[in-house]
Amino acid sequence: MLKEKYGAEIAEILSHYPVKRSALIPLLYLAQQDEGYVSEAAMKEIAQMLRLTPPQVYETATFYTMLNLKRVGKFHLQICKSLMCALVGSDTVIGWVKTKLGIGPGETTADGLFTLSTVECLAACGTAPMMQINEDYYERLTEETFDRILADLKKDGTCSLKTGPFMWPEAPRAQ
After folding, report:
1. Residue 89 is assigned to a structural domain of this protein
2. Which long-range contacts (CB under 8 A, 24 or more apart) does 37-46 make?
């Protein structure tokens, strides 16, 4: 039970919102951090805490791709399928995942390391094709960089190629 395990954190989250239902996404995220996904039991408990119906919580949990309704691998590969990414090669990246890891969208490798999901817009249209792995962005992907990312993750769970959030380049300074 979330409330028993995270009572102080839940109270802290709720204290930030004068309207209880506004705490829905932070509480769903807390549930996901606990179990690795948002379980049906967690959704029911959150609904009760916020005086919402379970379907109201479920419809929010299913809307956001950052929330998972089933277990995902240690490395959650999310590949953008919006129009801009599709035009510059997101299907190719999905093909690399299928070839190199043997999984398609919604599947997890047998060793539990990798799960592939397709998502809508990861806000990196100018640097596509790209993918998000857990909390890190990997942009301007080539097959060579993709292979290096996989090798690094399989080796020690970290990758030196992560780019983090997109930052606009600075304008040239007048001289």
Report:
1. yes
2. 37/68, 37/69, 37/70, 37/71, 37/72, 38/67, 38/68, 38/69, 42/2, 45/1, 45/2, 45/3, 46/2
Q: Are residues 103 and 150 in the same domain?
A: yes
The single-letter DSSP state of residue 71 is -
Cβ atoms 69, 60 nearer than 8 A: no
The whole-angstrom distance between residue 65's C-alpha and the CA centroid of its chain comes to 6
Over the stretch 77-123, which tens digit does the pLDDT of each residue have? 999 888 888 898 899 999 999 999 999 999 999 999 999 999 888 88
21: CB partners within 8 A, 6+ apart? 50, 51, 52
Domain count, the chain: 2
Q: Residues 99-110: pLDDT tens digits?
A: 999 999 999 999
Neighbours of 58 (CB within 10 A): 17
Region class of 53: left (phi > 0), else alpha (psi between -120 and 50), else beta: beta
CB-based contacts of 135: which residues, under 8 Å, 6+ apart?
none
Residue type, 159: C
Per-residue pLDDT for 51 more than 50? Answer: yes
Domain that holds residue 12: 2-63
